[in-house]
Amino acid sequence: VKCVGVLALQGAFLEHVQHLERCVLEKEYDLKVITVKTPEELSRCDALIIPGGESTAMSLIAQRTGMFPHLRKFVHDPTKATWGTCAGLIYISKELANEKELVQPLELLQVRVRRNAFGRQAQSFIQSCNFSQFIPGCHDFPAVFIRAPVIEKILDEEAVKPLFTLDDGFIVAAAQGNNILATSFHPELAENDSRFHDWFLQQFVLKQ
Ligand code: GLN
């Protein structure tokens, strides 16, 4: 049985767990879902979701608890799947455009990411997005952007495929190879809509 972990150092990890458990229940997937705080828990996982929250806090906690080298090793293992949402996207990126000294990223996703690209908390928004190009039939996903980052530059055009770009040209969803996914927004905060999680499980976890 494959195991999907949600990094639980900080942020919206419980929301991810709820969506994943709902998918497992409804689709009867042969999957286990756990929260991950320790190297031992991480070692049981085939895939890891890094949630939204605050990348500076997540980075600090990972350093202090000694999780950083374990996380780094896990996400760089090509047999493992990784999905970062919002702060999670920042945390897995190769390069930060701003406030570099506040986050020690996992340097996995070959992009340069800009934190808080839409401004402060008050500029947060929900946008209905048409993801049907990559998620069959998903024409109207409620994407929640909260002090969201954007992918400002793809550093390796061969490795990273942009999946969704906003009208102003910012990339807000991208994949690298067949095992790495990143989103600027929070599918875990879409109420009663687990389509994004289901797609992740099908394409990135169950297929491998
Ligand atoms: N602005 C946050 C950061 O830089 C991310 C916000 C979020 O995850 N909602 O980490």
Total of DSSP H or I helical runs spanning 4+ residues:
6
Question: Which strands sit side by side, in order, in the main sheet?
Answer: 2-1-3-4-12-11-10
Q: How many β-strands, per DSSP? A: 12
The N- and C-terminal alpha carbons lie at a distance of 13 Å
Tell me, briefly, the overall form: globular
Uncertain segments are none
Query: What ligands does this structure carry?
Result: glutamine
Describe the structure.
The protein has 208 residues and is of the alpha/beta class. Helix content is 27%, strand content 30%. The protein is built from 6 helices and 12 strands. The strands form 3 sheets. It has a 7-stranded mixed β-sheet with strand order 2-1-3-4-12-11-10. The protein has a 3-stranded mixed β-sheet with strand order 5-6-9. Strand 11 (171-176) and strand 12 form a beta hairpin. The protein is globular, with a radius of gyration of 15 Å. The chain starts with a strand and ends with a helix. The protein binds glutamine. Glutamine is lined by residues 52-55, 86-87, 90, 115-116, 146-147.
Topology:
Elements (H helix, E strand, L loop, with lengths): L1 E6 L5 H15 L3 E6 L2 H5 L3 E4 L4 H10 L3 H8 L5 E5 L1 H6 E4 L12 E6 L10 E5 L11 E5 L4 E5 L5 E6 L5 E6 L3 E4 L11 H12 L2
Parallel strand pairs: 1-2, 1-3, 3-4, 4-12, 5-6
Antiparallel strand pairs: 6-9, 7-8, 10-11, 11-12
Bound molecules: glutamine.
GO cellular component, one term: cytosol
Protein name: glutaminase
Catalytic activity: L-glutamine + H2O = L-glutamate + NH4(+)
